[in-house]
Structure formats: structure tokens, C-alpha cells
């Protein structure tokens, strides 16, 4: 095949398809990408395109290998088929599977490929044909890719679109706009350069809130608050929290309070974290599992395993502690030689049917005696 292309011969569709299958079966994805690019550079072979199913196969194997180059080439082939179907008479409306696009966006984020990101989103829009909005997972994959690339302006623009589509629906999942889970890649991107990038993001959000077409987003500001918590800057976190209702004119949600509690907890300010919980409850805001988890972790950071257990007991009726959280409490009990509290943890683990297992390897590391004597 390489000799044919170098000699300037025209390659038939069947030979090209056989070559594609051979490269896939042999796992030679770099060779396949090279052949496709060589075909694109010659006038007599640039129109070569595998069939629809083979294009999807190329995309699948490329995504499994995190090969952004080959993924982009496969999406180009799929785009050709979509265009051909639209101009045919009668038209054949082909659509790329949205799950494939989600994987392509994730690959774009992992490989920092903005070209693949734009191509993936463009093909998705072409496939949906404005009949419905992309799924939440697709928006989150795009947010992850943009955050990985450090393109915060486009990331917040995507968040705005995401909130417009799914933020006002009654049955929206509370975790969909949580800075601790779904939007965490955006949080990491905001605090990548420390307080300078956080200040820049906040100033832009404040300016946008006073623009001719104002953009106000509690979810975006929550990302800034948690970003401040991640760099241990409680003052910036609190100022941003206050700005939600003061300067921006919005109402903090449960994620806002959780982010503030996280900031207090990291600095061992457990009393302040507890006051945040009391305040939000007094306002009629319903705490979620993250709220109690953060309060427990705040007590653990302060080496107060008894207080951590009291929080778990206090919300026993409506809050199920995770296995990982109980492991953290048990670890602190072990460090403090608090056997009574450790027994309470074991009781809770049996109640929730968690198999806690042993932590022998952790204990070995914890018990190492570091000395300069050899």
C-alpha cells in the first residue's frame, strides 16, 4: 500500500478497506493513521472513505488506545458520510452515537487536543439536527476537555449553556452541578495558577453579571469557592461566598455552603464549619450527604474522632456514611489508640454491611521508625 501511494497509483475502495482492517487487526494504529493521511494528500486517493461500520470500528479502536490523531481522522470519515446522506435523494439521515462523542471528548481532554474537541462537538450538533439537546454527560465531557486545555472562557460558556438546558428542570439531579463531582475538573482548572487565576475568574464572572445580557451562575461561583478551599485560602473563599448574595444578587445553594465548609475544615476550623451547617439548616436549606461527609472530615482533620462519630450518629436516620468515610474514622481511631470509638465504627460497618478489611500495609508504613542509624 505504501509503495502504491508513493508511486502515485489510485487505490481502490476494497483494497483501502482491506488495508484498514489489516492494520486494526495487527494493532498498527500509527501505520493506519499514516496511510490515511497520505491518501488525503493525493488527488486521486483523497476521496477514499471506508464504509459507515468500518468508520465506527476505526473510531472505537482509536478511542480505546487514546489515539487522538486517528480518532479525528475517523470522525472526518463519519462527517463525510453524514454529508453524503443529507444530499442524497431521498436523504439518508445518519447520526453518530452520542456515547462515541462522549468518549472522543474525554480523549480530547486527556490528550489536550482542541482540534478533536471542536470536531467532536461539531459532528454531534450535525447528528442531533437541533431535534434535542445533548445529554448531560456530553456537556460534562466537553467541560472536562475545555478545563484540561485551560480554556476557562469557553468552559464557563459551556457551563452557561448546560445550565440553560438542564438547570431549570424540576427533576434535575442535585449532583449535576456539584463542584465536588461533576464540575470538579473546572475547579481544578480555576485554581491551577493559585490565587491569580481564581481572582481572574471571579472578576470575569462579576463583570459578566453586570453586562447588557447578564450571566449569573451560582454553579460557576461555587467552583471558585472550592478552588479557594483547595489552595487553603479561607478569606477568598468567604469573600466569594458573600459575593453570591451581595454583589451578584443570587442565593447560595447547598453546594455553596458545602464548599465553604470544606474551606473551614481544611484549616481545622471545625466550629466555623459546624456553624455553617447550623446556618444553612436555619435558612431551610436541606443538607446532603456531602455536607455531613465534610463535617466528619473536618473533625478528623482536627484529630477528633469522637466528634466525627457523633456527627454520623446524629444523622443516622437520613445519612448513610460511605465505606471510605468509615475507613477514615477507623484510621483516626487507630492513630489515637481510641479502641472504644473503633468498636463503634465496626458496629456501624456491620450495620451497613461494609466489609472493612485490614490495613496492614498502611500500618506498616505508619509504624516505620525513621532513623539515621545504619
From TrEMBL:
Residue ranges of PPR repeats: 253-287
Gene3D superfamilies: Tetratricopeptide repeat domain (1.25.40.10)
This protein's UniProt keywords: Repeat
Keyword Repeat set for record: yes
UniProt keyword Repeat present: yes
Pfam hit, one: PPR_2
Full protein name: Pentatricopeptide repeat-containing protein, mitochondrial
